[in-house]
Amino acid sequence: MDLSLSDEQQQIADSAATFLQEASAMPAVRAASESASGLDDALWRGIAELGWCGVHLPESAGGLGLGLGLVELVLLQEQLGRQLACVPFFDSVALAATVLRELPGSPLAQDWLEALATGEKRAALALTAGPVTAHCACARRTDAGWTLDGDWPQVGSAALADVLLLPAQGESGERLLLAVPFDAAGLQVQPLTTLDTTRRLAHVQCRGVFLPADHCISQGEALDVVLARTLQLGAIALAAEQVGAAQQCLDMTLAYAAQRVQFDKPIAGFQAVKHRCAQMLVVLESARSAVYGAACIADTAPDAATLLFHAAQARVAATEAAQFCAREAIQLHGGVGFTWEFDPHLYLRRAQASSQRLGTPSWWLEQVAAQLLDSPKETT
Amino acid sequence: MNLQETESEKTFRASVRDWMGEHLRGDFEPLRHAHGLGAPGYEPALAKRWEQQLAAGGWTGLGWPRQHGGRELPLAQQVIFHEEYVRCGGPGRLGHIGETLLAPTLMAHGSPELQARFLPGILAGQTYWAQGYSEPGAGSDLAAVRTKARIDADTGEWVIDGQKVWTSWAHESDWIFVLARCEPGSVRHKGLVLLLVPLRQPGVTLQPIRQITGEAEFNEVFLDGARTEGALHLGAPGQGWAVAMYLLGCERGASTLGQQAHFKSELEQVMAVARRNGAARDPLLRQRIAHAALGLQTLRSHALRTSSDDAPPRAVSIGKYLWSNWRRSLGELAMEVLGADGDVANDDALRQALQRLWLVSRADTIYAGSNEIQLNMMAERALQMPR
């Protein structure tokens, strides 16, 4: 039992940090976030060349074959979050590729997976917390395949995707997962204006979209299990990104406090400032421990209840860390923290947007409360 | 990173469980789940016999080097021992200060003679130690100690005058390590010595302090011409500060994981009351309980991430602040879960446990470096902000 990084893992984290500090420096983030698509295309190609997109995928799909590889994925996510990298890595790699990986029975899913593993193609998964029936979407079986109608209101990075993975309901109420190519007739992907401009959302609409039979890549109870599992693994990956963002907020604040002079000394010397930075360190480092621990547990093939508990642990701690550190970064930067020019507000926007994806902290807490308090016997 | 137990770790866990099952019974039954002095059933003489039983079973000095009679077990096995010990109802460890604080300091700073004289008694559960650091005028500002030590030219002994306070378990201990000023006129961190002083002697008077729980776990220690042998100092006279700080640095590592197993049983008590009285259905309280459960898991992950010697110093620095604030919050939550019953004393064991938790946990963020001192240290040492 050990939660310290191995030499190889430390190397992954260090080289990712080095690469991204250059390739996703703030001017590039600003440029991409102010562009129409929100994508830093050069950065995406760089990431694809480094092989990051297959870090958690089996060799058969062109991946690295590191087992579940969640720890390694988490280390990359942490650095991507730290730099607010304007690429759909989380949506395409951590979410969409993960769900496809879990569906080995579908040849189409495996074809897409190979394309995602190289970064050549991108996907988006319309995944939300709670029952899939919450989607107002239904698929009808026809002689030749499926006809899909529905709305998926906020799908991460959907406008950058080559294929959309959309959960829907079949005519007899069973759950389905459909793969819809971006150019399918009747599909409309409407980009939304988001407060967090570094990661975009889109409204996805299907009106009588026809799909061949094999485009339904999973269904029924097996799909429920896979979607729940993907939500949990995705939550841990998202939490890692939040930890990286919190780290950057602390680093920016420390750098600013060291050079900002008031009352004839750097404000870093005032206890009121020091204690707040120390509190940022507490929430940040404890969240990092939570995320590493959860990733490590997930890699050991735990039962569903255990994975849920640890996903909640990572997600709740990391959301608190990202929100707290972003807010404190603005406060401790003082007046300039309120300007567009300084970066803290970009992290505040990302922290808020991320807190609402894949289940809010209160949703996760309720899942854990139900597990601990509603069953006669404690399950974790 | 690896959280899966190996076969040998599983075997080790089973061996702890088996041993506890065989030994924590009969005469020792009253100690089961008693977490320390002041807890019902925790009779000091019995607790000492239990320590000796543990020692005979080879369960003391788990992490100590073999040359000092330890077992040199890897960290994972130490963690497993502490977890399983508490899970099996193992009582609070009366030998904690000697085994985890003084002994490592003796190994690092003591002469071979001192090591040979004191380590075996600690290992065997025969000798108990108290800590003589804080004084009425030196709490967070430890370098303000005023207790004086001088050499008696006739006997070559140290003679000590002064007053120590908040000394846990002094009335049940045999020896005390005392931070004292040995160079007249010296100030702050200079001119200090760390002395090993027998507690049972005419120059030492103990006065219990009643704490907010109503119990008296700690004492004032008055030193009026107290004496100890001239050789019983750790490190050179005048260099006591560094040794004293080394000792404080020993307060982390595997033993905090044992403490967490104890926290887990406290959390389970809170949940048991919540299920019993309906607080578990209160939408806010159930979220807070879930939050506490996740927080405890984070304490565990954090300890596993920071126990090894090469752990990131920034992460290490938050440990005490993290657990103490978690537990203090649990104490507050316990009273919210009890509701109006929390103010009413009766003989229900669960209720008493939660009421006690609420009061006891107020000390967690004060002793061993208060929250405010912890934040200073994180800022100045880990984050290297200016002093």
Walk me through the structure.
- The complex is a heterodimer of chains A (380) and B (387).
- Helices cover 52% and strands 16% of the residues of chain A.
- Chain A has 380 residues and is of the alpha+beta class.
- A four-stranded mixed beta sheet of chain A has the order 1-4-5-8. Chain A has a four-stranded antiparallel beta sheet with strand order 2-3-7-6, with no helix packed on it.
- Chain B is of the alpha+beta class and 387 residues long.
- Chain B has helices spanning 7-23, 44-56, 75-87, 96-109, 112-123, 240-249, 254-277, 283-306, 313-317, 319-338, 349-360, 371-382; strands at 129-132, 148-151, 158-168, 175-181, 192-198, 204-209, 218-228, 233-238.
- Chain B has a four-stranded mixed beta sheet.
- The radius of gyration of chain B is 22 Å and the shape is globular.
- Chain B starts with 6 loop residues before the first helix and ends in a 5-residue tail after the last helix.
